[in-house]
Write a structure and sequence with these properties.
The complex is a heterodimer. Chain A is an all-alpha fold. Helices cover 56% and strands 0% of the residues of chain A. The mean pLDDT of chain A is 82. Chain B has one domain: Spore Coat Polysaccharide Biosynthesis Protein SpsA, Chain A, CATH 3.90.550.10. In chain B, 58% of the residues lie in helices and 8% in strands. In chain B, helix 13 crosses helix 14. The radius of gyration of chain B is 26 Å and the shape is globular. The relative contact order of chain B is 0.13. The chains are: A mainly alpha, B alpha/beta. Chains A and B meet through helix 1 of A and helix 4, strand 3, helix 5 and helix 9 of B.
Chain lengths: 50, 598
């Protein structure tokens, strides 16, 4: 096999290695706790009434 | 039962901490209690609790009833599994030889058609990327008739390794029921992979199953000491860990199987607000993924009885410290995730343990510093508090000795118990017999005692750097690192030597009575460059000694996949001429060309 044919074959093998498409959802997880908002809520409500 | 075991273990650690505090207060009070003494007591209590927790893991493992081999499951496998190998600027011939060996190993089972191998490259170096494509051709030519092999390279690598795997799940995850997640240096027997799939099938609630990978292929004195330690002690500690954590177990990022659906549903990691080291992408993602799986009701388990799972480790102190720096940053970053909503209490505790693993180093360093300064702050005793006969201060030497014995006992006791257990159960035979195991344990303890004060300073520096906001980045693992020359060791550790000299000088001036104890810690620090350099050399002498040391079962009888990988690597290196770097660079100049497989 010539060098060009060898390169073409290698290129073909690499192309054939592409990942198959079968998507799956991966939702982003919540890691932060909204405790500040919880503590501030009564104050904000009071402020909104002013 | 798990709750009871956890409570008993925590009580043991607490009792040890309280006993140490009681003895320390008695000793420090002999010349009057100062505020610095109280600080020393707190530091000692925290450090002792941490040591006792390590010891309690070993005790749980030693006295567990589940130590025998679990019978292997049988039956057909109809589900599909992807064996995922993330690579990042690794030596392709080496990592692809691992893949080839594992493909051949799975080919020896009856289930090869149920497994695909997926190489997920995050390589940023264009020349290495071109080499990856070159060796992919060789790999596929040789083994693609056994299993399908896929390769993809991301043009950029957001989210690092966790992002790499998430990208694969989002692209192709729906094809696979399970993912076996490996590292570039991982090796796993095909029969082990099959058994892992069967165990996942046997329990539909099991979200992730972690194996205990054995460290292999160490060459240097340091590497082989770590390898022996991982092979001899770790299974017992892991057994203890397995009993304490129940179904809220660990994920160590590789050599594990996960249910794709559970992982996708639970482990989409967000960026943390702010900049690194505490913000940005989550560095030690594996602990977080385990916690998130448990939060969603999935079981996470470690099965230490699963054999045929291997990894490679750092071969010298410098590479070990570099890895430690990355892990340290990752673990300290978990302080941001600690209050995350809905996490199991044990998961939060695991984060605290991870943080303590590194914070304990500065705690010990502070304790040492306070102990050197304290005698200088002692108030001169009043021998005549009242007219009449003098009153001499009581010297509580017994307290000091009990304290020292206790701390040394917590450090060495578990190792010696594991040695005795090996003699009783016959486990030592797999390590070359009880005499070899005894000699290896003694030398390993000496080696650890010398290295621990050096590592204490590396870890203390890492913690301080991270608290000051320095980011370690994401260096590629240097798995084929060779010897460390004295000049390299000097460049990396001259400051350790300086700290050691200052410590000795301070002890000589301020606390001459403690100088001998201080020398045990600061002595190794003073010779740190020599220790680092000399332990990085191949330990042929140890192997040739009349009683060869640090022998492991994996060295005595390498498993089939280990032999296969070595054969493939030697053959590939011998009969394949890799294109030179310049040709690779030319080929990879066009980024589109370098990503042909996408």
């Amino acid at each position: 096999m010539s060098s060009a044919e060898e390169n073409l074959r290698a290129h073909h093998i690499v192309q054939q290695s592409a990942l198959p498409a079968a998507p799956m959802a991966m939702p982003e997880q919540v890691l932060s706790r909204r405790w500040r908002g919880f503590l501030l809520r009564p104050f904000l409500q009071w402020l909104a009434l002013r | 039962m798990v709750t009871l075991r956890r409570a008993a273990s925590a009580l043991f650690a607490l009792a040890m901490a309280l006993t140490a505090s009681y003895l320390a207060i008695g000793y420090f009070d002999s010349d009057g209690l100062q505020w610095l003494d109280l600080a020393r007591v707190v530091l000692l209590a925290l450090s002792t609790a941490w040591l006792a927790w390590g010891a309690v893991l070993a005790l749980n493992g030693l006295f567990s009833l589940r130590r025998g081999r679990v019978p292997r499951l049988r039956g057909p496998i109809t589900v599909r599994t992807a064996v995922v190998v993330p690579v990042y600027n690794e030596d392709p011939v080496k990592s692809f030889s691992h893949v080839a060996a594992m493909v051949k190993s799975i080919g020896r089972t009856s289930f090869a058609s149920q497994f695909d191998f997926v190489i997920l490259s995050d390589t940023t170096d264009q020349r290495i990327a071109a080499k990856e494509e070159f060796w992919l051709v060789r790999l596929k030519t040789e083994v693609s008739h056994i299993c399908q092999i896929f390769y993809r390279r991301r043009p950029s690598n957001p989210g690092k390794k966790a992002g790499n795997i998430a990208d694969f799940i989002k692209t192709s995850g729906a094809l696979y029921d399970y993912l076996i997640i490996l590292d570039a240096d991982s090796l796993m027997e095909g029969s082990t992979m099959v058994e892992m799939v069967r165990r996942m099938e046997a329990d539909p609630q099991l979200g992730l199953l972690q194996t205990l990978p054995k460290v292999i292929r160490a060459r240097s004195f340091f590497g082989r000491a770590i390898q022996f330690s991982a092979s001899y002690y770790s299974p017992i500690y892991a057994q203890g860990l397995a009993l304490l954590q129940g179904t809220e177990g660990p994920f160590w990022g590789h050599n594990a199987i996960t249910r794709t659906r559970a992982f996708a549903q639970s482990c989409g990691l967000p960026q943390l607000p702010g900049k690194p080291p505490f913000g940005g992408h989550i560095l030690s993602h594996d602990f977080v993924e385990a916690a998130l799986l448990a939060r969603n009701g999935w079981k996470v388990r470690i099965d230490p009885d699963l054999r045929g799972s291997f990894e490679e480790g750092p071969d010298n102190v410098i590479d070990y410290a570099k890895r430690d720096r990355r892990w340290c940053q990752g673990n300290l970053q978990h302080s941001r995730i600690l209050p995350a909503p809905g996490l199991k209490r044990w998961s939060r505790f695991v984060f605290v343990q991870g943080i303590m693993a590194y914070v304990s180093a500065p705690l010990w360093a502070l304790f040492l510093a306070a102990s050197i300064i304290a005698p200088a702050m002692t108030v001169i005793p009043d021998y005549f508090p009242a007219p009449g006969l003098p009153v001499f201060p009581k010297v509580e030497t017994a307290n000091a000795l009990a304290l020292l014995t206790g701390v040394v006992g917590l450090l060495l006791g578990p190792k010696l118990l594991i040695l005795i257990d090996g003699m009783i159960t016959g486990r030592n035979r797999r390590f070359g017999g009880s005499i070899r195991a005894f000699c290896s344990v003694v030398i390993e303890i000496v080696c650890t005692s010398v290295l621990a004060p050096i590592m204490m300073l590396f870890q203390t520096r890492a913690v301080l750097e991270i608290l000051a906001g320095a980011d370690a980045g994401w260096p590629a693992a240097n798995r084929e690192a060779g010897r460390v020359s004295l000049s390299e060791a000097w460049a990396a550790s001259w400051w350790v030597m300086v700290v050691g000299l200052i410590t000795i000088g301070a002890a000589y001036r301020l606390a001459p009575d403690y100088l001998i104890f201080v020398l045990l810690v600061a002595g190794p620090q003073v010779v740190a460059p020599f220790v680092i350099s000399s332990t990085s050399y191949a330990s042929q002498a140890l192997r040739r000694a009349p009683v060869s040391l640090f022998v492991t079962p994996e060295e005595l009888t390498p498993s089939q996949v280990m032999r296969e990988q070595q054969n493939v690597l030697v053959r590939w290196r011998a009969d394949t001429v890799e294109p030179s770097d310049s040709i690779m660079a030319e080929q990879s100049e066009d980024p589109a060309e370098a990503r042909t497989s996408r």
